[in-house]
Amino acid sequence: MNKRTIEWKNGKVRTIDQTKLPHEQVILEITSCREMAEAIKTMKIRGAPLLGAAAAYALALKAYHSKAKTKEQLLKELEECAETIRKTRPTAVNLFWAIDQILEKISNVKETNLNDIVRLVVEEANRIADDDVEANRKIGEYGASLIRDGDVILTHCNAGALATVGYGTALGVIRAAWEQGKKIRVIATETRPKLQGARLTTYELMEEGIPVTLITDNMVGYIMYRKLVNKIVVGADRIVSDAVINKIGTYTIAVLAKEHKIPFYVAAPTSTFDLKHSSKEVTIEERKPDEVTCVFGKPIAPKGVKVLNPAFDITPLEYVDAIICEKGIFKPRDLKNLG
Ligand code: MRU
Predict the structure, then answer these.
(1) How far apart are CA 315 and CA 245, in angstroms?
(2) Could you tell me which of 259, 187, 289, 179 has the C-alpha nearest to residue 228?
(3) Is 56 within 8 Å of 105 (Cβ atoms)?
(4) Cβ(44)–Cβ(17) under 8 Å?
(5) What is the DSSP track for 193-204?
(6) Sign of the dihedral defined by the CA atoms of residues 275, 280, 281, 283, in that order
(7) Residue 280: its pLDDT value, please?
(8) 110 confidence band (pLDDT: 50, 70, 90)
């Protein structure tokens, strides 16, 4: 998948509706900050690095279509859009990081010509998107050095091209190893309740001819017990000073991996790092109960049953063997040296 997951085109943002995959390829054309917020909330757009680019493009749309007459008015509109986007999903730090990058750039600029400011916002959003693809390629290059011929790699959720602007993080590592000619196989967990593994990871890997086997989330222990997997690579939504926060189910996999002495790697760009905060300070998104009680709109549990639906979990760093980012491969204890 060499095409970008998200693109700016003449005042519109084009992206793929991920809720329709793998059976339908529906391209969304987003024209406003409000539409972008809706696409993020409903998970048409998802995956931490892609959320960063989407947040940046929401500000670009706001600026591009603004009728503001003064710089102050424009900045106020951008701040309002930023607030709308900040309220969409709380966990992936990339979304907040991208907004801060753009607002900081604009607040530091001396420019008073509104067209120039608008151009700057759009350029900055495009730069964030470009940088993500570049970071993922580097993550792939570094990460592939950990992968050997014959490896069977387990991945969770979707940390592929679809979750990023292009190439992917955990799937970037797998993709790069495959491009180097390594004979590998992948085991993908289905990732209840939103099924990103079943719908998106298998789709991406099959498109490239990378051998992939789908399992349900509760098969992970058995797969490890039977030594059917020898490496694990996952992405991240936020890496804090004491933990990796990623899709619900990641912690279970990491604990099992330690028990079975299987290396557990996390691949993520530095835009996912939030090392000034600890896991206690992060809001774990709690999504609607019907994602658990229904499958594709069909109820599977008694009406009114109580439900828990946290979208992410917290894996303490002691379970992580290495973190692969665009700057190299790091032991978790060395992360602080990255600044
Ligand atoms: O709820 P989602 O689908 O946005 O969650 C995605 C994940 O948890 C991914 O593993 C993570 O964002 C890494 S994506 C490169």
Answers:
(1) 6
(2) 187
(3) no
(4) yes
(5) TTTHIIIIIHHH
(6) positive
(7) 98
(8) confident
Q: Is residue 136 in contact with ligand 1, taking CB distance under 6 Å?
A: no
Residue written as tokens 């290059």?
A: 141
Q: What string of DSSP letters covers 53-113?
A: HHHHHHHHHHHHT---SSHHHHHHHHHHHHHHHHTT-SS-HHHHHHHHHHHHHHHH-----
User: What distance in angstroms lies between residue 89's CA and the mean position of ligand 1's atoms?
Assistant: 12
18, 46, 238, 248, best to mutate for ligand 1 pocket (most atoms within 8 Å of CB): 46
What's residue 296's pLDDT? 86
Collapsed DSSP state (helix, strand, coil) of residue 189:
strand
Q: Residue holding tokens 């008015």?
A: 73
**Nearest-10 crossing angle of helices 93-108, 114-144:** 140
CB atoms near residue 124 (< 10 Å): 21
Residues 27 and 70: beta-carbon distance below 8 Å:
no
pTM attached to this predicted model: 0.97
Which domains occur in the chain, in start order? 6-137 (1.20.120.420), 146-338 (3.40.50.10470)
Residue from 21, 96, 157 to probe ligand 1 pocket by mutation (most atoms less than 8 Å from CB): 157
Residue 339's pLDDT band, with cuts at 50, 70 and 90, is low
Q: How many other CB atoms are there within 10 angstroms of residue 2's CB atom? A: 7
For 289, phi then psi, to 5°, come to: -60, -30
Q: Are 168 and 177 within 8 A, CB to CB? A: no
DSSP code string of 6-34? EEEETTEEEEE-TTSTTT---EEEE-SHH
The type of residue at 113 is: N
